[in-house]
From TrEMBL:
Composition bias type Basic and acidic residues, residue spans: 149-164
Compositionally biased region (Low complexity): 129-143
Region span, Disordered: 129-174
The species this protein was found in: Luteimonas composti
Protein name (database record): Protein sip-5
Amino acid sequence: MGFHDLVQRVRERELALEQRHAQASASWQGLRGRWREGWTPTRIVLGGLLGGFVIGWARPVRRVTGLPASRWVQIATSLWSMTASFRAKEAATHAEAAAGEAGAVAETAAETAEVAATATGVADTAAAPAAPAAEAVAPVAPARPLPSDARRRVDTGWDTEPRPAEAATELSER
């Protein structure tokens, strides 16, 4: 099978995927509309009465109030840790996506600068004389030290998850 045949197959599959996505989106919008239309005031009241009856019959409060205080603290700590880990994962996902976008923008900017330099026939070193004219107009800002490269290096110590004993030891040492 030739390259052009494969490209054509990919285009066909992408078109089919877009059509399925549009169908699913339309079906979801229809379901959401029907769901909202189905919640009439009578159904809401009946659902509340039925839910209240089930909760009263099951009496979950009586079962929960018998727990000791230490158990409540353990439950609260577990829930807090779980939400913190979800937030950390979400932040890491956003950071990874932002880094990918920044890399793509940097590559595009480099390519654009290279094409512009090639099109005008100006090398990178020839563009340097334009800077003194700009400095004569604008005041000179004090030089700041450059950030170290240590923050850009990959920390290989975190490539794999630690064993439970190592994780507990590291957390207790902090």
